Amino acid sequence: MIIKPEIQGVVARSAHPIGCEASVQKQIDYVKSAKPIKNGPKRVLILGSSSGFGLAARIALTFGGSQADTIGVSFERGPSEKGVGSAGWYNNIFFKQKAEREGSKAINIVGDAFSDKVREQVIEAIETHFDGEVDLIIYSLATGVRPKPYGDGMWRSSIKTIGESATGATIVLENDSWQQTTVEPASKEEIESTIKVMGGEDWESWIDTLINSDSIAPSCKTIAFSYIGPECTHPIYHEGTLGRAKVDLHQTSHALNLKLANYGGGAYATVCKALVTKASVFIPAFTPYILALYKVMKAQGTHETCIEQMQRLFSDKLYNPQGVPVDGERLLRIDEYELASDVQEQVSTLMGQMNEENFKSVGDYAGYKQEFLQLNGFDIEGVDYNQEFDFEELVSLKP
Ligand code: NAI
Q: Which CB contacts under 8 angstroms, 24+ apart, belong to 78-85?
């Protein structure tokens, strides 16, 4: 069989295993050549470790100077009669192979991070492989649903505005088309459900679980990722349902910081740059901003993807011997290049010019689409996409 990209709307329905391996390798090569992480953690738990920021953090901490051992939790699909499986499935497999080859432990737990079963598996893995303690917990789940306790249904997130509706364009990757979109205001229940899914409650409950099982090492830190963005994106993000959930996450970071202070550690909500990931392509009316941002930051030489962001976070900020630099709201910022005033001035000029006809030339659509394809193992230099796969061989690969 030959594996081709299949996109439905903004969702990838196929993934290329060799391309995923090449993409993991490319990230490893980057961190090996970048400024190394000094005084970094040795035993790291990553919730949401198979793609985006979580995978990049795992690669940075293993290969970028800290030589960490990692336990990664993710929710991914392997090959079956329904298809070849998800990119994250293969990222897990190839990350583990490469980490073990260099002497690092890499334990993959594939299952629902909201479930008790996965919590038990994680605690057992910490006991078995980490001498019972973790030095860093990274909370990087991105999902649209969270099960309610006692099998009582699901909370579902809604990416909506609060108060007024907002209009903008959504670009459908499947057919490269620009669609004018109106995002309607959320109901009170939709706001509350989004906070349940993407806010801080589950992060806090993970840290409580680890405190209760005596799994927190001295100086243990925890981080979770957030986004704020410039004013032009606020109606759909920062002042919308997702932003409300992120504010909840920021507040949780303060509560967790107090809890971890007992161990000499700390908790930080880390504000990242806008990037193409499996999760972010879902945000309606957001793509024109990313297209303009990519164009400006690439021209300026300040564009970063997840891997550059994570290596810089650990080498310059979280393990800075002078202390963790935070802003007035105690947020750890790695979005400073995105929010620089000269970048934002140029971005708003481009956004003012961008329309249905010219978005591919005014914005960096080629770069956006390429990054999306690469997340799924396609369009990566040096990979032979005409290579035949033996399905049984794919099935035999285990995370
Ligand atoms: P992603 O979709 O690339 O990764 C999400 C990870 O969560 C995957 O490893 C997936 O397997 C895992 N996951 C999802 N549901 C799960 C479940 N029930 N159990 C176990 N694992 C599960 O997403 P991305 O973009 O890396 O997002 C991570 C965090 O970063 C999110 O909080 C997001 O809001 C935040 N962020 C993203 C930005 C962006 O532009 N992409 C910007 C700033 C923050």
A: 78/395, 78/399, 79/391, 79/394, 79/395, 83/13, 83/14, 84/3, 84/14, 84/15, 84/17, 84/389, 84/394, 85/15, 85/394
The atom number, within ligand 1, closest to the CA of 55 reads: 9
Q: Which residue's C-alpha comes closest to atom 18 of ligand 1?
A: 112
DSSP 276: -
SS3 209: helix
**Residues 236-249 pLDDT 10s:** 999 999 999 999 99
The per-residue pLDDT for range 92-112, each reduced to its tens digit, is: 999 999 999 999 999 999 999
What distance in angstroms lies between residue 91's CA and the mean position of ligand 1's atoms? 14
CA count, 13 A, side-chain hemisphere, 284: 18
- Based on the residue annotation, tell me whether 268 is a catalytic residue of this protein: no
**Nearest residue CA, atom 8 of ligand 1?**
48
The distance from CA 58 to its chain's CA centroid, rounded to whole angstroms, is: 11
The string of pLDDT tens digits covering residues 326-364 is 999 999 999 999 999 999 999 999 999 999 999 999 999
Catalytic residue among 30, 90, 139, 237: 237
Q: Which residues line ligand 1 (CB under 6 A)?
A: 48-54, 73-76, 88, 112-114, 140-143, 225-227, 272, 274-275, 277-280
